[in-house]
């Protein structure tokens, strides 16, 4: 299954609030897949209100972010600043991960103000 096809199927399941199907689709992802698929998987799981899925997603994003991936750091910090899913707002973690996103150059690709998060925390 192509990445785009996977993303579309997961998005369709999520639009119907069908987390079970989305999770099954994401479990079919080979852990050796490219980085975009890993980030997508971690992001979707980190938005879940199901605690096990949430923790799996956060751990995946955290591992990628701590290895310098700005996209993963941005997505994790955005969940942390928003309190999305099972996430609790955490100011120090938001700052830590958003700084990774800024330092990597990723944040300026998604915002004219790469320090927007300082106002939100």
In short:
This protein has 121 residues and is mostly helical.
Task: Provide keyphrases for this structure.
mainly alpha
Describe this structure in words.
The structure is a single chain. The chain is an all-alpha fold and 121 residues long. It has one domain (3-120). Helices cover 70% and strands 0% of the residues. The chain contains eight helices and no strands. The radius of gyration is 14 Å and the shape is globular. The protein starts with a helix and ends with a helix. The mean pLDDT is 84.
Question: Could you outline the blueprint of secondary structure elements for this entry?
Answer:
Elements: H1 3-15, H2 19-27, H3 35-46, H4 51-66, H5 70-82, H6 91-104, H7 107-110, H8 117-120
**Count of separate DSSP helical elements:** 8
Q: Give the biggest sheet.
A: none
Strand percent estimate: under 5%
Shape: globular
Uncertain residue ranges: none
pLDDT averaged residue by residue:
84
Q: What is the CA-based Rg, rounded?
A: 14 Å
How many domains make up the 3D coordinates? Answer: 1
Class from secondary-structure proportions = mainly alpha
End-to-end CA span: 39 Å
Number of strands: 0
- What's the helix-strand series? HHHHHHHH
Proportion of helical residues: over 70%
């Amino acid at each position: 299954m192509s990445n785009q096809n996977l993303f579309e199927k997961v998005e369709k399941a999520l639009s119907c609030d069908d987390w079970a199907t989305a999770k099954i689709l994401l479990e079919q992802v080979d852990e050796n897949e490219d980085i975009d698929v890993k980030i997508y998987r971690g992001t979707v799981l980190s938005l879940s209100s199901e605690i096990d899925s949430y923790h799996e997603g956060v751990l995946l994003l955290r591992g990628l972010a701590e290895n310098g991936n700005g996209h993963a750091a941005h997505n994790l910090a955005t969940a942390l600043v928003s309190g999305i899913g099972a996430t609790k707002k955490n100011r120090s973690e938001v700052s830590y991960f958003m700084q990774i996103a800024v330092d990597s150059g990723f944040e300026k690709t998604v915002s004219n103000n790469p320090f927007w998060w300082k106002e939100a925390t």
